[in-house]
Amino acid sequence: MQARLLARETGDLSPDETSTSVNADLLRSFAPAPQHRFNGEISSQSALEETEERAHNIRAHGAGVSGLALEKFDGRILVSGGSEGSIKIWDLEEASAPNTRHVFRPVSTIARSAVGKRGDGHSHGITHLSFYPFDPEAFLSSSYDKSLKLWATQRSALTAEFHLNATIYSHAMSPIADHLLVSCATQHSNVRLVDLKSGSAVQALVAHGGPVLCTSWSPRHEHVLASGHADGKVRIWDVRRAGGVIAQLDQEDSLGLVHRFRHATASGADWSRMPHFRASALAHDEAVNGLQWTDDGKYIVSAGLDRKIRVWDAATGANTLASFGALIQNQHAKTTAMIVTPPGLSSSSELLVWPNDQEILLLDLHDGTVITRLRSPGTTNPVGPRGGEMGRNRITTIVWRGSGGGSGQIGTVMGGGNSIGAIYSAHLDGQIRAWMPQIPGPDDIDETDEIDEDEEARRRKRKAVDSAYRSLMGKQITFTGSTR
């Protein structure tokens, strides 16, 4: 670090080069941050103090956390959704510093509405949350109650709702478009488009491949949308075209559209009359439940239940053949969240942040190298047998807090506000966990301090030590501060 600062002062490193070099170190130093906890269930301070040493007793949602969203402007407001249907809003600026112990409490709660009764909240579990792309004052929620709802953040007030008559697994809005279309991945085979301007479900992109599990808008072309389907296909749409699909990603194609065009013209074929993709092309051998464009729009990342992650050249549709090995876990037929760090954030290529069941993997996006494996304290076999306590610890979704909070920042700044950068993960056990780069400081907390150790076991240890002292000394020993 000192050598880097010296090089900066002497002009051997530019400010951007210094920043990307520092960020590369920070990205590789991520670790659990148990000093930050989220308490949405324990109401009294005395009850909180009684359970302070046992992190797994402090839950954000008692029934499990099924959704997270973090606004990208200030990186301050975090919204969480529960498996029971409630929504809670958290202020991340409550914590004065990354290394300071802090227990967050929700600044607002949208309660679950009972089935068949009037109420603004969802009546079933939350499936997905997202902030309005251009304004942190609004966010969207979808649920197993088959509705999509738009909320005013500050007032926690419902401003619009849409009933689609189908379970909504996830939804997405374009980060650049003037239109206000929300694409919805539902249990039906068609991609549903909801127009927030008109207040209605205006269009269905017709496909025949079972449920749609994920959608993602291009960050370069406002009318281009990718969708992942249960039949293993990734379809690319231009939502203005009545014909619908303009391309399908093909795992067997490592050369792409440009190669096919050149081959056609070299052979004298009429490219305008030729199909530009195979109708039977598959992106994955099983259902596709994850899609993400890189922020610069150059690549598409897909994930499937075949436990494969693939990286595609967005300009040509070519499979780049990036290999992530056999470590990848992906076996739950719901939309999976993954994060791609912004280009230029570090001196190396973009990183893929992947929720690997009970751990988080930081992977090089283009060669699949594992940079870091993040495991929750107390998790010893994150890829072992499922079920029981380990199953309840499974990660349901993750969000990234970078410069301004979201993954779409401009420049090479790692953190935002009082953050040096962070990942927040939602878990079936009801917890929201924080992960941060390790920065040495006076308030550091050692993750080996047995924060999650069972309290009963600790009491037994203390009792055994006390008994041993008594038996050896023949009396109870009391230590005082007085001297003689």
From TrEMBL:
Residues 1-20, 440-465 are annotated as: Disordered. WD repeats lie at residues 58-100, 119-161, 205-240, 281-322. The lineage of its organism: Eukaryota, Fungi, Dikarya, Ascomycota, Pezizomycotina. GO terms for cellular component: Cul4A-RING E3 ubiquitin ligase complex; nucleotide-excision repair complex. Residues 1-11 have a biased composition (Basic and acidic residues). This is DNA excision repair protein ERCC-8. It holds the Pfam family WD40. One of its GO terms (biological process) is proteasome-mediated ubiquitin-dependent protein catabolic process. Keywords: DNA damage, DNA repair, Repeat, WD repeat. The keyword DNA repair applies. Residues 443-455 have a biased composition (Acidic residues). It comes from Pochonia chlamydosporia 170. InterPro entries: Rad28/ERCC8/Ckn1/ATCSA-1, WD40/YVTN_repeat-like_dom_sf, WD40_PAC1, WD40_repeat_CS, WD40_repeat_dom_sf, WD40_rpt.
